[in-house]
Amino acid sequence: MTAFDAKELKERFNPDNSLLHRQQMIMLEMVVELDRICKKHNIPYFLYGGTLLGAIRHNGFIPWDDDLDVALLRKDYLRLMKVLPDELPSHIVLQTNDTDPNYFYFFAKLRDKRSLLEEECPYDQVFKERGVYIDIFPFDKMHLWTHLLSEPLQGHTFKIFRTAKNRSWAMKRIRAITWVNKHITFPVLRFISRSTYGNTLTYDYGIPFHIVYDERDIFPLTTHNFEGVQLSVPGNSHHMLQTQYGDYMQLPDLNQIQGHVNKLEIYD
Predict the structure, then answer these.
(1) pTM score
(2) How far out from the chain centre does Cα 142 lie?
(3) Confidence check: pLDDT of 1 > 80
């Protein structure tokens, strides 16, 4: 295990009452709400990605981390999407491409309505909701080749947005591509995988990248301390993190840290 000075890292990156620390506390509030709702409805979820890494290595946020990721199997994700709107407090809102016409991602976000966040990438500029967020990723079983086929189909929308000279025209194209993929292309690919027993576990269609996981590393779930709260994590978090990061206990070059946030306003 790599030794590091947790106090020194906190003082350098996210001291109490710093803007990043305040953002992290908003994200923590949202994931605690998500945890409450999932427990109430018996919906299994787990911390994922850098958030899982933070839980295992730091017992909370990676000190410089400015996002929070959770994941579910697609069948549980669909159940969660149904119950969230009626369960969330008024200052937290669900964002999907059903609730926000310009949101062309195929995973959900919970957004805080008491803040405004501008990311380094420009995609969020057209979203209806733009507060501090947490990401909710669906995982599903499929043939890997079908996911590889799907990635450029939705991934092309990001290039359209980045290179657009006319943002309004670009969004019309993006909304049309997203609709076709959501209602035609991805259901066909999902049918192929299910009818021919595709068993690769990765991100659901529409998320234009993939990491392959073993479901046995995820379930049964357990819990781990995250900022003083016990949250759900994969049963074999060690192998999950090894798969994604390699030697995950080794700190990166702290002089090369780059965040997602360009501008953040938090309204007291």
Answers:
(1) 0.97
(2) 20
(3) no
